[in-house]
């Protein structure tokens, strides 16, 4: 981030002051105090309140994927509210989280009315993910394991929205023919366990197993859900670290936040890095409260391999770009990622781990053509 953007947001100066703590493991406990939690929690809540104002203003135009992110946020807010309620010093924060969740609930309810008109079939197929109680948050935490990173990842993000959707519909049991959840075809088994995926292919493989877990699918392939979740998140961590190395050059931010959203919900606390929180907070548009294309002057590197890999992946109904540059999908992933930070903050001190280039991750792609390093 640039100095200019730091100056524009006095609140973030504090984060920067805290950042050097990340260099020493012993400092993990230094922020494990009420004051630090309250400060960071307040910053995150301010961002989420602004984003909710955006949701409210554009409600009729927000697509389903946008609503899903805010649905996950509501659950995260309730979780934080509950945990903080028992600490007298954090009660104001608890009330604030609860107030925001109370504001979100009727908005989300109303949004379904709009989706019924704008995209009825997609809504029917994915309505379970909008239902209260669908999103379940972790109660225990783990770390990604770098030895699970693919040695030879695919050079192209092979994500196909239609294929991925059809497998999710089978899983949810919302198709025209199937009515039982936990459905799985041979095609979907192959697609969702295929090794070597990158980008959105990877994050949708993870989403598939996360939803399987939330739906309570435990038989057959799903008895190995945790194994696949661990493999996918290890690779998503690798991608996020490389995204950080190229300073989150547009348009990787969308996928970067999606990875934090999904793997955080998957219980991988090492995605909750202070410098990543700082980056995301910095991408919010102060006027609209949304997340979207960067303001003019921000770095856009079309020649970057990461750009070529991912620029054209977000397509069709999943993405909704407003004329002012706000993005429905990007705002949704941002709020669910930030909500994850808040939920984690309520349960643990933030992790401040930084990259350790001296530790070569065994599957690291540093020699591969899609290397993100400049
Ligand atoms: C990481 O994964 C490897 C390979 O599956 C395994 O041998 C190792 O024990 C794991 N490490 C941790 C800390 O879980
Ligand atoms: C399900 O039925 C609807 C309405 O009859 C139809 O438009 C849609 O294409 C069908 N979907 C699938 C996956 O067959």
From TrEMBL:
Residues 1-29 form the signal peptide. Keywords: Signal. InterPro entries: DUF4735. GO terms for cellular component: cytosol; membrane. This is Uncharacterized protein. The lineage of its organism: Eukaryota, Metazoa, Chordata, Craniata, Vertebrata.
